[in-house]
Amino acid sequence: MQNESSGALRQGAAKQRQVWRQWLGVPVVAAGALAASAALAEEAIKRLDEISVTATREARLSADVPQAIAVVGKEALADKKMFNVKEALQDIPGVLIDSKNGGFDARLIIRGAGLKAAYGIREIMVLRDGVPLSDPDSFTRLDFVDTQDIERIEVAKGPGNLFATGSTGGAIQIFSKSVFDDSANSLKVGLGNQGTQNYHLRYGGKIAKDQALALTVTHREVNNDWRAWNKFDTTQLSLKHGLVLNDADILESEASYSEANMQLPGAMDNTAANGYLFNRFRDSGKQEGTSEAWKHSGRYSKVWFFNSRLEMQRGDFTFKPRLYYNTWYHYHPVTGIINESENWVWNIGADLEANYKHRQGTLVGGLTVRQERIPDSRKYEYRDVTKIAGGPQAGRITATLSDAKGALAEIDEATTLLTGLYLQESWRPGARWIIDLGARYDVVSFEDDNLQLRKYDYATGKYVAGDGRTLTDKTFRLFAPKLAASYKLNASLNLFAMVAQAGQMPSSGELAVNPGLEAPLSTNYELGLKGRGENWQVDTSIYYNPVEKEIVQQSNGGVTHYVNAGQTDKRGFEIAGRTALARQWEIGGHYSYADYSYREFSEPVRVGALTVNQDRSGKALPFIPRHQYGVFVGWKHQGWRARVGANSWGEYWLDNANSEQYKGWEWVTNAALGYQIGKHSLTLNADNLFDQHYAAEVKKDTTNRVTYTAAAPRTVMVTYRYDFR
Questions:
Q1: DSSP class of residue 134?
Q2: Would you state the torsion angle of the CA atoms of residues 159, 160, 164, 165, taken in this order, to the nearest 10 degrees?
Q3: Cα 443 to Cα 417: distance, rounded to the nearest angstrom
Q4: Cα separation values, 662 from 401, 592, 700, 705, Å
Q5: All domains of the chain, ordered by start, with CATH?
Q6: Sign of CA dihedral 147, 125, 701, 395
Q7: N or C: which end of the chain has fewer CB within 10 A?
């Protein structure tokens, strides 16, 4: 694709201002349309509003939260096989999520935050039952989340979140099933194509008048035999204990252990030299190989997790201290190198929250302290490789033959300490108003002692002498204020507005590549409308989110760099709604528009032996589709239930230069059909029902090399569930 001229950019900006003026009325029109549709429904389904605590640390109906949020409740999760959190989050506007393996891994982006991550989740705080799964530097791993033990998931988008320590993208909180909920006791057995298996047992109940115990055991695996090196399996064990101390105090604790083994398949190019791999995948649905030399990437982990929380209530005052600890080991082969945590990494933390209800509102405040210690982490060369035998490129590695480690390449020890304070007043000056005024202040200190003996050199394709010893000592101070207000227009409609700001801690991996990185600063201005009726619901908002010094990932011939952009501007509109058509039927959909561009960005590009800065000002951010949308229809009748949903991503740019676009994908359809009689239920799930063959991710580096990551073809699974209740 040709680059846009400056004149075209000015024309586009003028047109965009006109679009924004037109869209200011869209939230009211959309909510009114849903309300009118629901009013015509006969014997419609009654749906109660979901409760949210993640945005404000106060239990509220989602309609009363002056922020863009989404709650995926128990009913919505029941129709999904839940092998990956992608299944729960893929219908939320502004949330882009996919998985390269179908196991626990997920690449997650919320309103552009998380785009810099080559894999995994960054810039977004992820929690489970109030415990951060994200490290103090914002990197998140999901290998110890039992997706079969999820009660609901809350998503709070953008800055302005009391849970989101050092994260600009917001927070996602996963709530597991309560130890006191014996209705969750069940046995599940699921089997499907691609060697998919799921076994889950949850059993618990009262062991004394004031105590409860619950045991959860889960095993999931999938062969993914539509391509090589793509197996996944995990076994998880959890024991929860609950103790009612008196009428007002509760102590809940959990200990869990997880083992997860995940092979990460390589991407494809579409060149003649490699046999047009992507074209062949589109024709057959089989990925016959990878164009990458690193054919044995993966992550193999073991995790112990402990969590204990106390809730004490004395009149209008509630104290909620929480202590948590997790320790993990992993063996992690990636591009050019193999990572191994020889001594287990550990995270320990505490969150001391207090809540005071007064005549005109609620005051919430607290202290967060967390430390991550990485002792004696090591990197190794690949032991088994093939090399070019002769000629000018003699010795260049062309392929790995296994994921076995060879010579020691690097020794690293690091410590990250996070301390944070938060305070928020939720003032209710009248029956129609809620005003949230609050802030977080976090200090993150990062120390790293690195000894690099050997490294992989991308230019020559060989292992060469390393850079020796490097010491890094950096401290980031991140202030995150918020002012938000919700006004009840009538019994069904709430108008909200907010302005919030947050800083973003660079990850340890990014600092290792570029120790000079600065913390980005994200500011969000948002106006929205939330509608709740007896049988309809709508959430819509319009936002402007400028980010200063945003960290941008750059790939140059396989080498990944991270640099600060001068500023990015993010403008967007989102809407999601659902309504009942009759007693048995429900329909809904979502849509988001994203106009994200660099206001100032000079990208360093390697040309031969030189590095030349290229101006990317006015260019769109890569990978973010301008249009994202989907629809669904649900049906229930006399024990039967069915749901069909289809999602689409529009076209997006492949690189910062906006030199080429990928067309995206349209109407990828997922379906579920179930029947329940008494304690027995049977559910059939079909993802990618019509077996579309497309790329989940397409990237182009500064050497003009384009790579494709394949999306999974059709997967089918049948699950039997027995409820013990």
A1: B
A2: 90
A3: 8
A4: 32, 18, 10, 14
A5: 6-340+382-723 (2.40.170.20)
A6: negative
A7: C
Q: Cβ(486)–Cβ(496) under 8 Å?
A: yes
Closest CA to 541 of 522, 527, 554, 551: 527
- Look at residues 722, 720, 711 and name the one whose alpha carbon lies nearest to residue 90: 711
- Short-list 284, 266, 202, CA closest to 239: 202
Q: What is the DSSP code string of 233-262?
A: EEEEEEEEEEEE-SSS-EEEEEEEEEEEEE
Looking at residue 15, its pLDDT comes to: 40
For residues 156 and 55, give the distance between their C-alpha atoms in angstroms, rounded to a whole number. 6
Pull the structure tokens for residue 263: 């092979």
Task: Read off the tokens for 338.
Answer: 């193999």
Average pLDDT, consecutive stretches of 10 residues, N- to C-terminus, the chain (725 residues): 36 40 42 42 52 87 94 90 91 92 85 83 90 82 89 92 86 94 94 96 94 97 94 96 90 96 94 94 94 94 96 94 96 95 93 95 96 95 95 93 97 95 96 96 94 92 94 93 97 97 85 84 96 94 95 70 87 96 92 95 78 89 96 95 97 95 96 96 97 95 91 96 93
Alpha-helix residue ranges (DSSP H) falling in 414-528: 508-513
Those residues with Cβ within 8 angstroms of residue 215's Cβ, 6 or more apart along the chain or in another chain:
201, 202, 203, 204, 238, 239, 240
pTM: 0.90
Q: Are the beta carbons of 190 and 198 closer than 8 angstroms?
A: yes
Give the sign of the dihedral formed by CA 153, CA 157, CA 161, CA 164: positive
Could you tell me if 428 and 436 are in contact, meaning their C-beta atoms sit under 8 angstroms apart?
no
SS3 36: helix
Token digits for 480? 């995150």
What is the CB neighbour count within 10 angstroms for residue 470? 14
Helix then strand count (H, E) for the chain reads 6, 42
